[in-house]
């Protein structure tokens, strides 16, 4: 297999232009899942994205792999059950990326429907059968505060603790893409599908694409084309169904990041039922040296490529967090933020009531569109699509992805962690570096340690905001398909989200490492730092980026 590096882009482009069985447009969780499912059932596949992999909604989620406890309130039992079962599968397939986490459900004297909470949590446990991450328990206020010290000033009555999973959304997509590549799939980032190729008979047989890195336009012929473009699906869909009503209502969700001491959570996340009476709930999630607070859920009418944090979002999340925790967070406490748009399916009701179900549409001419759903359910969505494609081909091949480990061989997490920590000790790297590397890269962390062993300067940490070393930049450019500094800092390491300086002090050093791997020159390095700063500013909206003098 070719390394997943932009250094091999020209060869990969030539292969794609030669034609494939399946062209998947969109490299978020859904498109990556379709690529893996199709490639593992023996189809030749090219998966493309107009930006980096996971550059759409799949890097902007709450980073949970879950059934969605709160959907029980809308009686969406089958949806919740599907999510819980997928969570159990993904824990098995990617034990490094899908990690169990305790969640505290706080109960105050004024909490409504408190008698129903235990029932809801029992239902959640039952859906997972005997394999739940943990069974829920009622805990007293002191126990809840021990798990989540930020609750200390909130006037808590008691709480429940239940189990779910946390992940790194963009890295989960990366692991799925890397696994699809191991089955022969071609993966081209910065490649947009501009126009579907439609024959005289009306059949869709590929797409005209533009290479965003070179500006070249070429065709990728394909027997099947899958539209997995998330909130953008209507753009391709209307090319074959002119005048069709949009199927997606984008719902905006923002998250804020604060330094952990400002909102301390020992080991557990907190589900925050709204105290503002608007029925929205939020999460506070421990995230290394930081805490995540979010999210909002508001109908979005702006440009899908320009979604960013605005002042109303910032004020809402801070106020909601302060109300629940009795905290005094202010704008100056916010060190990072992101904004994304959920591809919700059109229907009546408030945003927070719109279903997280997915839907698949087979258009005249054969284009298959898949959207809605959740990060958690990407594998099920992909299976629906590929079942249809193989049926069209008259073949009977079952979906195999329930048995394909993601980004490794499926070796037990604790064994991998022990090896990585031993390797870090030998190389003078901290345990925190080792633990983070293992969670993000699993078995492939060994490759990063080999880089440090060969060149000790690559063991240098890049930022006080998170324990990442320079070798990870090399790994991202050499084996993780990264083309830009934004790809590395925003979606391979998530440094852009963890500090006000977005990792800019290390930007030039990192850009040089990427340039050396991908054959770029000094002029590219100089421009890349400015391009990265602009990308961060566009995403952060009202939140300024500040670099200490
Ligand atoms: C705030 C928020 C919180 C969430 N939290 C969770 C959570 O905790 N757990 C969970 O399970 N789910 C969560 N979700 C839902 C989940 O993130 C999405 O359902 C999922 O990521 C959608 O993936 P996708 O691949 O369908 O879309 P996307 O990730 O958006 O991928 C579509 C891709 O298509 C590309 N594209 C578009 N047009 C073209 C074109 N013409 N040519 C080439 N490429 C194109 C885009 O660049 C994009 O990368 C959350 C969503 C939001 C917004």
Please sum up the structure shown:
This protein is an alpha+beta fold and 549 residues long.
Characterize the structure shown.
By secondary structure, this protein is an alpha+beta fold. It has three domains: 6-57 and 170-247 and 355-403, FAD/NAD(P)-binding domain, CATH 3.50.50; 94-164 and 249-353, D-Amino Acid Oxidase, Chain A, domain 2 (2-Layer Sandwich); 413-548. It contains 16 helices and 20 strands. Strands 3, 4, 5, 6, 11, 12, 13, 14, 15 and 16 form a ten-stranded mixed beta sheet that branches. The longest helix has 19 residues, at 522-540. It is globular, with a radius of gyration of 23 Å. The two termini are 45 Å apart. The mean pLDDT is 93. Flavin-adenine dinucleotide binds at residues 25-31, 48-51, 55-58, 60-64, 192-193, 228-232, 253, 295, 340-343, 371, 373-376.
Any chance you could write out the topology, listing elements then pairs?
Blueprint: H1 9-17, E1 20-25, H2 29-40, E2 45-48, E3 64-65, H3 77-93, E4 99-107, H4 114-127, E5 137-140, H5 141-147, E6 158-166, H6 169-182, E7 186-188, E8 191-198, E9 204-211, E10 217-227, H7 233-240, E11 248-259, E12 269-272, E13 282-287, E14 290-294, E15 298-299, H8 311-325, E16 334-345, E17 358-362, E18 368-372, H9 378-392, H10 413-427, H11 431-441, H12 445-454, E19 461-463, E20 466-469, H13 471-479, H14 485-492, H15 507-518, H16 522-540
Parallel strand pairs: 1-2, 1-10, 2-7, 4-12, 10-18
Antiparallel strand pairs: 3-6, 4-6, 5-6, 8-9, 9-10, 11-14, 11-15, 11-16, 12-13, 13-14, 17-18, 19-20
Helix pairs in contact: 2-6, 2-9, 10-11, 10-12, 12-13, 13-15, 15-16
This protein binds flavin-adenine dinucleotide.
Flavin-adenine dinucleotide binds next to helix 2, strand 8 and strand 16.
């Amino acid at each position: 297999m070719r390394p997943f590096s932009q250094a091999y882009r020209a060869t990969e482009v030539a292969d794609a232009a030669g034609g494939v069985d399946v062209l998947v447009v969109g490299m978020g969780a859904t498109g990556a899942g379709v690529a893996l499912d199709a490639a593992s059932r023996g189809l030749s596949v090219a998966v493309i994205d107009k930006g980096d992999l996971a550059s759409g909604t799949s890097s902007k989620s709450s980073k949970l792999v879950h059934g969605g406890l709160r959907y029980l309130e809308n009686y969406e039992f089958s949806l919740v059950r599907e999510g819980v079962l997928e969570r159990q599968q993904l824990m098995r397939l990617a034990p490094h990326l899908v990690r169990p986490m305790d969640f505290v459900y706080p109960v105050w004297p004024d909490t409504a429907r408190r008698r129903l909470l235990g029932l809801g949590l029992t239902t959640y446990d039952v859906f997972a059968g005997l394999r739940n991450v943990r069974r829920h328990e009622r805990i007293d206020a002191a126990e809840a505060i021990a798990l989540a010290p930020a609750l200390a000033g909130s006037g808590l009555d008691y709480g429940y603790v239940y189990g779910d999973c946390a992940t790194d959304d963009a890295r989960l997509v990366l692991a799925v893409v890397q696994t699809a590549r191991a089955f022969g799939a071609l993966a081209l980032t910065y490649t947009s599908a501009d126009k579907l190729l439609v024959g005289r008979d009306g059949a869709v047989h590929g797409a005209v694409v533009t290479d965003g890195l070179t500006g070249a336009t070429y065709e990728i012929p394909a027997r099947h084309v899958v539209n997995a473009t998330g909130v953008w699906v209507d753009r391709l869909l209307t090319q074959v169904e002119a005048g069709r009503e949009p199927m997606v209502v984008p719902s905006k969700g923002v998250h804020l990041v604060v330094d952990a001491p400002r909102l301390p959570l020992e080991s557990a996340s907190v589900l925050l039922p709204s105290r503002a009476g608007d029925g929205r709930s939020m999460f506070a999630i421990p995230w290394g040296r930081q805490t995540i607070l979010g999210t909002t859920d508001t109908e979005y009418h702006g440009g899908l490529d320009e979604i960013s944090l605005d002042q109303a979002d910032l004020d809402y999340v801070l106020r909601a967090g302060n109300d629940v925790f009795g905290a005094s967070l202010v704008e100056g406490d916010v060190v990072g933020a992101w904004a994304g748009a959920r591809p919700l399916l059109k229907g009546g009701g408030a945003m927070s009531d719109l279903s997280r179900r997915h839907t698949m549409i087979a258009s005249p001419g054969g284009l298959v569109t898949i959207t809605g759903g959740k990060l958690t359910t990407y594998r099920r969505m992909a299976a629906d699509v590929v079942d249809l494609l193989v049926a069209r081909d008259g073949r009977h091949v079952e979906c195999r992805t329930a048995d394909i480990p993601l980004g490794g061989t499926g070796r037990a997490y604790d064994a991998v962690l022990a090896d990585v920590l031993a390797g870090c000790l030998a190389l003078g790297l901290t345990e925190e570096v080792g633990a983070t590397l293992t969670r993000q890269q699993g078995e492939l962390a060994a490759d990063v340690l080999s880089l440090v062993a060969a060149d000790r300067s690559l063991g240098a940490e890049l930022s006080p905001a998170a324990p990442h070393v320079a070798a990870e930049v090399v790994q991202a450019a050499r084996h993780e398909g990264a083309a830009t500094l934004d790809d590395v800092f925003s979606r391979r390491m998530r440094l852009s989200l963890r500090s006000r300086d977005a990792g800019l002090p290390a930007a030039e050093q990192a850009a040089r490492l990427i340039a050396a791997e991908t054959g770029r020159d000094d002029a590219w390095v100089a421009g890349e730092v400015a391009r990265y700063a602009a990308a961060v500013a566009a995403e952060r909206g009202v939140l300024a980026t500040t670099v200490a003098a």
